[in-house]
Write a structure and sequence with these properties.
Blueprint (H helix, E strand, L loop, with lengths): L4 E6 L6 H11 L3 E3 L3 E2 L14 E2 L2 H9 L3 E7 L2 E6 H9 L3 E5 L2 H10 L4 E6 L3 H11 L4 H15 L7 E4 L3 H16 L11
Parallel strand pairs: 1-7, 1-8, 2-7, 3-4, 8-9
Antiparallel strand pairs: 3-6, 5-6
Helix pairs in contact: 1-7
Bound molecules: adenosine-5'-triphosphate and ligand LQESDW3C.
Ligand LQESDW3C binds next to β5, β6 and α4.
Length: 196
């Protein structure tokens, strides 16, 4: 059967990527979460090494120079990147590794990791998207406006993805992503060592 693979999950800020990932990880042991590095300020409830690796700009740039990221991008004014070593190790062990990253990062992954699966998460509508970011209460008004503006640009990249999933109800969204995973595992191009 198919070896481990990358599952790239993108979508505008506040659509629910983190929430969906958490629910998927609770349900399945074959899915691992890639913890990103970022230069963004830590939110009060966040933990270094759990939500992100929080780095200074100099530390982040050193890691870029040392080739430690499989992708990185400036998103909403801060740098974010995916550490390479964890992803490579877990895929070799046969796990599915989720990358919760923006569209610029997803395009970089596409160049270097054929076989990754790309899912774009959509909100039911833009009003609901704003309401979710507001209710999360982690961003000030200016940042919310910036993220809402960036959302329009991100949505224009949807055709670069394999699947589009509307995140209306969490449980339904998780089920749909699990269906995608099962279908991907059964792709003829990915079946290895079939013995009849
Ligand atoms: N299906 C849903 N219905 C209602 N609220 C939701 C749903 N999914 C997520 N939320 C809520 O929306 C808010 C944003 O979710 P979350 O932080 O997971 O988004 P995100 O896409 O990871 O955002 P970011 O890209 O900024 O990290 C949270 O308060 C979360 O509880
Ligand atoms: N290219 C990458 N983008 C990433 C990565 N980790 C997160 N992100 C994107 O950042 C925004 C904002 O996240 P927040 O935690 O500040 O709300 C998020 O929507 C992702 O699209 C990464 O490693 N690479």
């Amino acid at each position: 059967m198919r070896d481990g693979f990358l599952l790239v999950l993108s979508g505008p800020s506040g659509v629910g990527k983190g929430t969906v990932c958490e629910a998927l990880l609770d349900k399945r042991k074959d899915i691992k979460y890639s913890i990103s590095a970022t230069t963004r300020k830590k939110r009060p409830q966040e933990k270094n090494g759990e939500n992100y690796y929080f780095l200074s700009l100099d530390e982040f740039k050193d890691k870029i120079d040392d080739g430690e990221f499989i992708e990185y991008a400036k998103v909403h004014g801060n740098y974010y990147g995916t550490p390479k070593s964890y992803v490579v190790d877990k895929i070799a062990e046969g796990d599915i590794v989720i990358l919760e990253i923006d569209v610029q990062g997803a395009l970089q992954v596409k160049e270097n990791y054929p076989g990754a699966v790309y899912i774009f998460l959509l909100p039911p509508d833009m009003k609901e998207l704003r309401s979710r970011i507001e209710k999360r209460a982690t961003e000030d008004e200016e940042t919310i406006n910036l993220r809402m503006n960036n959302a329009k640009n991100e949505l224009s990249f949807i055709d670069k993805y394999d699947y589009a999933v509307i995140n209306d109800e969490i449980e339904k969204t998780v089920k749909k992503i699990e269906c995608i995973i099962e279908a991907e595992k059964l792709k003829v191009t990915n079946i290895q060592g079939v013995k009849l």
